[in-house]
Amino acid sequence: MTNLEVINFGDCLLRSGGAEAIAKAISSNQHNLRELILSYNEIRKDAAISVAEAVEGKQHLMKLDLNGNQLGEEGIEELSGTLEAFDMVDVLGSLSDDEGDDADDDDDDEEDIEEEEEEGETVDDPELQVRGTAITPTRENQSPLKVSYSARQFLDSPSTDRLLGLGKDRAQLLVEELGDSLNDADSTARGLMKVASVVTEEAAVKSAAFQCADAILTRSLQSEQSQPILIANSLLVHMGLLKSEEKVQPIGDLRGPLILLQHIFQQVYFPRSLAQLFIAFLTRPNSQLERHANIQHQILQTLHRM
Fold first, then answer.
1. Is the pLDDT of residue 114 over 50?
2. Is the Cβ–Cβ distance between 18 and 121 less than 8 Å?
3. What pLDDT, on a 0 to 100 scale, did the predictor assign at position 250?
4. Which of 43, 57, 92, 187 is the most buried (most CB within 10 A)?
């Protein structure tokens, strides 16, 4: 993560500890950084100065947003002076919403850090989510970043970063890219396996993958040429649970596909008539399935309820 262009932690309650951690993380790298947004985070003077010192020499930086923090008049002057010394004062955004400096800066800051540590939150290493060339906190109320990857880039080389980097319209983008190939059962299965290959337990990744799988299967099953049984067979082939006359390289780890299937089997578009087919193959002895016995058991429970 050394080529980021945007780091956005606006309104995330980082406080000074989080700001110091970010300053340390970017001080010796992130030379392509264009925007650093740390507004409305209860950041105090010393931490803001550390952030300013960390951006020294970053020639591509166009925006440093520290508005809505707790710098006070003295802190604002010092911050501006620090950036002016680097000839970078022009990148500093408005500080019109600064909340002023508290009298008990040090004591309050220590208490905040202690409270966060007691609650099990990480102060010096905020949880990040990488989206293409930018970082944004995993908060639902954050505005989505500009799409960083195309659907073709994801399909050519699937990864969690590329899936998330497609943006909020990822499902539509993938369906449009796959186009008429979704009329073909094997192409549909391959598309689903590409999505399944990047599935993890991370909530944001699972949500994105489920969204894409729903869109792909809904589009495929609505096709006049659609044959659900052939889609099911192709999925089983690509999972290595059914042999094929054609040379197909099964997916290496079944965890992602199984997580995806567990979701698919609970959706209204899934043909209930296929339940027995999947039960038959998911109950056969298989070393890959045995590695994920818990998920396998959950899937079979879902299928037996149909």
1. yes
2. no
3. 85
4. 43
| Tens of pLDDT, residues 139-186 | 444 444 444 789 999 999 999 999 999 998 999 999 999 999 999 999
How far is the C-alpha of 283 from the C-alpha of 290, rounded, in Å? 10
Instruction: Please state, in angstroms and as integers, the Cα–Cα distance from residue 57 to each residue in 26, 32, 33, following that order.
Output: 11, 11, 11
Question: CA-to-CA distance for 238 and 291, rounded, in angstroms?
Answer: 17
pLDDT at residue 259 tops 60: yes
Q: Cα–Cα distance between 153 and 267 in angstroms, integer?
A: 28
Mean per-residue pLDDT for 91-116? 66
What pLDDT shows up at residue 132? Answer: 45
Using only C-alpha atoms, the chain has a radius of gyration, in whole angstroms, of 25
DSSP summary character for residue 131: E
Nearest to 124 by CA among 47, 22, 27, 4: 22
With cut-offs at 50, 70 and 90, classify the pLDDT of residue 120.
very low
Establish how many alpha carbons lie within 13 A of residue 37's alpha carbon, considering only the half-sphere containing its beta carbon.
Answer: 17
Alpha-carbon separation of residue 182 from 78, 187, 292 (angstroms) = 59, 6, 29
Measured CA to CA, the distance from residue 256 to residue 158 in angstroms comes to 13
Q: What backbone torsions phi and psi does residue 183 show, to the nearest 5 degrees?
A: -75, -15
Query: What is the separation, in whole angstroms, between the first and last Cα of the chain?
Result: 45
